[in-house]
Design a protein that fits this description.
The protein contains 15 helices and two strands. It is mainly alpha-helical. A two-stranded antiparallel sheet has the order 1-2. Residues 1-34, 39-48 and 398-412 have low confidence and may be disordered.
Length: 412
Amino acid sequence: MQRPEPAGEKAAGALVRLSRVKHDVAASRHSQHPDEGPVGAGTPAPVAAKAAAIDAAQAHPLTWKTVVKRALVVAVAGAAIYLALPSLIAVLGAWPRLSTLDPAWFAVALAAELASFTCNFALQRLALRTRGWFAVVTAGLSGNAVTDSLPGGDAAGAAVQFSMLTAAGFDTDTAVGGLTAFSLLGVGGLLALPLFALPAILAGAPVSPGLVHTALLGIAGFVLYTIFGVIILRTQRPLAALGRAAQSLWNWITRGWNRITHGHRPPVTGLDKRLLTQRDTIRAVLDRKWWQAVLLTAGRLGFDFGCLLAALRATGADPRPSLVLLAYSAANIVALLPVTPGGLGLVEASLSGLLILAGVRPGYAFLATLAYRVASYWLPLLAGPPAYLLYRHRYGRPAARRAMPGGAGSST
């Protein structure tokens, strides 16, 4: 799934470099579909500011530094896929055996993954403060398709999603804090999953040492994550000090880079204050909607895990759910690393190997991993282009515009 960027302007710049297109935002489109817009929407000023950021990003041509950065991203992704290639080939080699899956259990797996995506889109509705589904779902599927098809595609996917939501009448800048908060909840939920397998381990269930180590690392990570989150949300000095330290380090690197390249990149200022402002936004969102966010996050993870369990049952395997939970949590934490498109290769290698450690026969592990990835990766990826076409049918073709920073601008 998509991971939101901390700033709408960064996402907009990534979108311009990807598609070289600017989008028009017309208030009349929102008036034709009032249920799709955010509650209390109507002011065009943030939309105009975002359009101005797109104009500014497009004004700069592609530089050799950008080309080098993208080449490095592609090279790292290629190296990661190469290292995971044996497991990826083993998993994809099980493709002809998909016809041997139990149809009923595979249907359950697909339904569970559909429910997981529904919970994810419901979380985005909370962040966008809207009652509508259409724009949220189509923009989410389109952004997800970009994220899962490009190496390091998180920024590009977020840019596509935010641009589509902006064109539908949303002020996505106000949603960044909510989306960030819910993403952090999702990471915390993944780290907490090994806690649910701990009773089975303590009860003496036969567990591979590798899975025991995975559980201990996950529990330790969850404890540290919780402590860090409480400190950041409840105090100001640690976050402000972290912001100042990061700002100083970045400016030191920038000065050295400017001396080497004779560039004129300005120093970063006020990072500590911006971090505190974003922290306050996240805290405000969690204070208002925390119980809904927790339930939907649990539903998203629970249904996704149910998809994997159903895929295993569809192959005929019947492992301990607690051990499968450890394999699932570890593989999805690996998938958070934006190295390959959608974790391609890394998830297949880690999940199939961990399922084998959980007692699943290798043939069943490879087939179940493929069935799970078909439901959670390939089908949502293929749903992206039709979702974008449906969005275009509802809102029309986005038109090029030249916006003024201080106003709504005019369509051309």
